[in-house]
């Protein structure tokens, strides 16, 4: 009877050991899965953040293009106005005496120089 009793105890201990090992393994697998999900979630969040950044970049580029188009339009209108002004000045010059004409032409040269400097500054 004692041998049989000891054999049963060993068998029970072995069963308990197998149960404990499988529980430990199950907990380890669960922990690994949890970690994988956390990494996946992080990756998903990073992907979404990058998508949002790309969308924001596209919007920024669009706004920049619109601003440039507006600027070009305004500059075009300014140039048209300047050439109309120039035509008017030439018409006025035809009806002036030499002294007044020389004075106006000097003013015009100074104005042209200022405009050229302003364009250079804008380009820089």
Quick recap of the structure?
The protein is an all-alpha fold. It has helices at 2-94, 98-123.
Could you walk me through the main structural features you see in this protein, from its secondary elements to its overall organization?
With 124 residues, this protein is an all-alpha fold. 96% of the residues lie in helices and 0% in strands. It contains two helices and no strands. It has helices at residues 2-94, 98-123. The longest helix is centred in the middle third of the chain and has 93 residues, at 2-94. The mean pLDDT is 89.
Strand content: under 5%
Largest pleated sheet: none
Low-confidence stretches: none
Radius of gyration: 43 Å
> What is the helical fraction, as a range of percent?
over 70%
> So what's the oligomer here?
single chain
- Give the CA-CA distance, first to last residue: 103 Å
Instruction: Please give the number of β-strands.
Output: 0
Write down the overall mean pLDDT.
Answer: 89
Order of helices and strands: HH
What coarse outline follows from CA principal-axis ratios?
Answer: rod-shaped
Q: DSSP helix count?
A: 2
Give a quick set of tags describing it.
124 residues; rod-shaped
What topology emerges from the helices and strands here?
Blueprint: H1 2-94, H2 98-123
């Amino acid at each position: 009877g004692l041998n049989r009793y000891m054999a049963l105890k060993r068998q029970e201990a072995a069963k308990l050991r197998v149960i404990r090992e499988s529980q430990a393994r199950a907990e380890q697998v669960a922990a690994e899965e949890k970690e994988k999900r956390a990494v996946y979630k992080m990756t998903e969040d990073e992907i979404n953040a990058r998508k949002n950044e790309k969308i924001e970049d596209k919007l920024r580029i669009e706004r920049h293009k619109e601003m440039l188009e507006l600027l070009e339009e305004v500059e075009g209108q300014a140039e048209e106005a300047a050439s109309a002004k120039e035509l008017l000045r030439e018409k006025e010059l035809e009806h002036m005496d030499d002294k007044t004409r020389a004075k106006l032409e000097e003013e015009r040269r100074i104005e042209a120089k200022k405009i050229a400097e302003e364009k250079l500054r804008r380009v820089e």
